[in-house]
Specification:
This protein is α+β, with helices and mostly antiparallel strands. It has one domain: HIT family, subunit A (2-Layer Sandwich). 36% of the residues lie in helices and 21% in strands. The longest helix is centred in the middle third of the chain and has 19 residues.
Length: 151
């Protein structure tokens, strides 16, 4: 682990209200600071910077958790797509954003390019619009439901 990695610190916490599931090699949690129920993040427990560094068991576990989480997000009302993103610029611990693209988002002209949803524009615009300092009741309730379902 590098000298400072906020994701490694999150993984070390024994209690984190946003963590939905911890598997043998991966962690699934709700994105903090964004009031968008179903905006999840999946990450390996071991600090790696990209998927090419994962062992086979880690990769299989991460993919299984990502697939299960994506299916669950798609069951949420108004969600038609799940954008899957990984940048590694600000936080160089591999983590995959599972961003629910809702009907409301594509009804916003600022999220479109020539009448079609523009994924990068939409992602940036709605992350800024939905920024919050603490989890909303809606997010907290969804996290608890997902924990009971085991995602």
């Amino acid at each position: 682990m590098p000298t400072s990695c906020s994701l490694c610190e999150r993984i070390q916490l024994s209690e984190d209200p946003l963590v939905i599931r911890r598997s043998s090699h991966s962690l699934l949690y709700h994105m903090p600071g964004i009031d968008l129920p179903g905006y999840l993040v999946v990450a390996p427990l071991r600090h790696v910077e990209h998927a090419g560094m994962l062992e086979d068991a880690e990769l299989a576990d991460l993919a299984r958790l990502q697939a299960t989480a994506t299916k669950t997000i798609l069951e949420l009302s108004g969600v038609r797509r799940v954008y899957t993103l990984s940048f590694g610029e600000v936080l160089p611990h591999l983590h995959i954003h599972l961003f629910p693209r809702t009907d409301v988002m594509v009804d916003d002209p600022g999220s479109l390019h020539e009448g079609v949803a523009d994924g990068p524009r939409l992602f940036d615009r709605w992350r800024k619009r939905l920024a919050i300092s603490a989890p909303s009741a809606q997010v907290a309730e969804l996290v608890e439901r997902m924990k009971k379902r085991s995602v």
